[in-house]
Amino acid sequence: AVVSTQSGHYGRAPTALLEKILSQTILMPHIPFKLSYESFEVLLSRFSLSTYSVQEIIKAIKITILHHAIHQPLVKLINFEDCSLDISKITDDEKDLVIQLPSMQKHIERLIVSDKATALKLLEGDGDSIANLFMECKSNYETLYHTYCVIHKLVKGIPGNSLVSKPLELFSLFLRGETSSVPEIRTALKCFGMLSCDEFWSRLQDAYYVLEPVESKSPKLQLLAKVIKMQIDKLISEEVTETTKDVLKNAQSTFVSRIDNFLSTLSCPGAWPLNELLWFTDHTAFQTLLVGKVRAAIHRGLSKPHVYLQYPAEDDSLIPNVCHLYRLYHEHGKLISLHDWIKSYVTSLGKKKVTQLDHARFFQAASELHFLGYIKPTRRKTDHFAKMSLLGY
């Protein structure tokens, strides 16, 4: 519904429109569906390649949600109203599926070393323990999302920063994990640490206002809000201005260092227990569903034109010339003799002599196959075409 509402707002820049749509849908913490780093990258690249089509966004979101619901049977356990896990009706088979999730297996392996009692509860399929892990996964995403919003407020519009006008690319870096070691984010924070006093103060306030309305902050978000508030209070108490350059530089350096340390505590979403329930990770299938298999589609269209043109399959008189030629194309080797090809083409039409009209139709069809990448002229033999491999499709 949000996507459909925004689809008519073409006065807005395309990337800004995409940011608004995603920020009100799948990026929101209360929406129980997320895209992994690889899938998010596919979405961004597909959006730019499709001339910033809003319809492509609608198609992509629908495809991913449908694909995730079909291939992840545990999705039905999620309560979509409050994004919680409904364990009241969970069956023993579903508990086994939860325990067999790769993220759960890794989590249990770690717990066996540090907390055997909790690991045993999870292996026994304790519903409360599983529900708590899911809430922890949700809390981790809330922390990641609001931290992204804070960093975006801090670095937005800074000259010399590659992430100035690319909030979605910044969010993609957060999805990738190891945020503190990402060169783009480190450079952005370095640029932030060299701002004027007024600009530094203004951005700190904007960042704090992002966290202030957030209800039930996680411990990490509480820590982030505390770090920002302490810095604001310090600027007020020490009366830092442009004239006190050393004090300002020290305050900026200290704050950037604390933010950098905080970012190092964020983990990759792929490492969170039960992330498979919320996160769509099959980016290869996503790419295939969005882009399609070009070579297979062309082959099907040329070999079975009646499927697309909707005419009786047994009526050969309605087959397009390029499809006639494509059938004969497979009967030749790597090099196709032009003389033999046109002769077999005319024979397939049930004729004995080649007319000027047959010549014209043949060369038109051959040009279409050339355009599609199936053949190319060759100098190895005169009056011959060479077959193309189409490995790039």
Report on the architecture of this protein.
The protein has 393 residues and is mostly helical. The protein has helices at 2-6, 14-23, 37-49, 54-71, 92-99, 102-114, 116-123, 127-155, 167-176, 183-192, 197-211, 219-237, 245-263, 275-278, 283-291, 294-303, 305-309, 321-329, 338-348, 356-372, and strands spanning 34-35, 78-79, 84-85, 279-280, 335-337, 375-377, 384-387. Helix content is 62%, strand content 5%. The strands form 3 sheets. The chain has a 3-stranded antiparallel β-sheet. Strands 1-4 form a two-stranded parallel ribbon. Helix 3 runs antiparallel to helix 9 and helix 8 (127-155) crosses helix 9 (167-176). Mean pLDDT is 83; it is low at 4-11.
- Which H/E pattern describes the elements? HHEHHEEHHHHHHHHHHEHHHHEHHEE
Task: Please list the strands of the largest sheet in the order they lie side by side.
Answer: 5-7-6
Distance between the first and last residues' Cα:
35 Å
Query: Total number of helical segments?
Result: 20
**Chain-averaged pLDDT:** 83
The percent range for strand residues is: under 5%
Shape: elongated
Over all CA atoms, what is the radius of gyration?
30 Å
Number of strands: 7
Poorly predicted parts: 4-11
